[in-house]
Write a structure and sequence with these properties.
- The chain is α+β, with helices and mostly antiparallel strands.
- It folds into two domains: about 80 residues, Phosphorylase Kinase, domain 1 (2-Layer Sandwich), CATH 3.30.200; about 140 residues, ATP-grasp fold, B domain (D-amino Acid Aminotransferase, Chain A, domain 1), CATH 3.30.470.20.
- It has five helices and 13 strands.
- The strands form three sheets. Strands 8, 9, 10, 11, 12 and 13 form a six-stranded antiparallel β-sheet that branches.
- A hairpin with a 5-residue loop joins strand 11 and strand 12.
- The chain is globular.
- The protein starts with 5 loop residues before the first strand and ends with a helix.
- Bound molecules: thymidine-5'-phosphate and aspartic acid (ASP).
- Aspartic acid binds next to strand 4.
Amino acid sequence: MTPYRKNKLIYEGKAKKLYTIKGLKGLLIQEFKDDATAFNAQKKGKILNKGIINCGLTDYIFRYLEKKRIKTHLVKQISPTEMVIHKLKIIPIEVVVRNIAAGSLLKKTSFREGQILPKPIVEFYYKNDALGDPMISDSHALAMKLGNEKDLLTLKKLALKINSVLIPLFRKKGLKLVDFKLEFGKDKNGRIILGDEITPDTCRLWDIKTGRKLDKDVFRFDLGDVDAAYREVSERLLG
Ligand code: TMP
Ligand code: ASP
């Protein structure tokens, strides 16, 4: 029997819920949902078994990152859709890394979809639903006191390190890591740790041979069987 008993629901987001744990301070249970949203929740739906798939993928990828000496909030997976995590003070910045031009980059630059970027681009977005998560510069982040200069440098360094570990991991499974989003937080010692999830909700993944999209863009833009796309990523990584 798991010693981890859910206590209070303290947060419910679009894709996950967070609970405190009876008798354990400093740890939380992160539960993954099947719900899917896009365009700041203007589009809503469900993806079959997404909770199970995304929990399993995050557990696998975060354990892999830990082996490469990147600290994450993962303690352990305790059920098909739940994992125990370290409680972090979340930094309200979404860190996006891009290897290949796609998505919103096409609206900001002259790159065409699929163009390989000369080197990875790192971007910051202010995590704020009311504002629609706008892209921000370092100056904006500093002015809003989302972090200090050193924190921002650490976020960029960690994001690029994670990118360099994930590219070959996905490549071995026949997937191109086009771009992805990370969230970080500080632990009780003030150290910056990777939080949240790494899944087809938060990455663009294209089949290396055919270019087929195997991520949330299938849901965002109604490109085909999104349930099958998520299942395929899970089978390739974990199967
Ligand atoms: P973008 O091209 O729409 O800016 O997305 C960049 C990456 O970030 C892509 O892999 C999808 C991911 N992402 C999220 O995880 N959450 C979001 O809310 C958005 C807009 C993008
Ligand atoms: N998760 C975001 C939302 O619903 C957007 C996205 O992933 O496209 O608002």
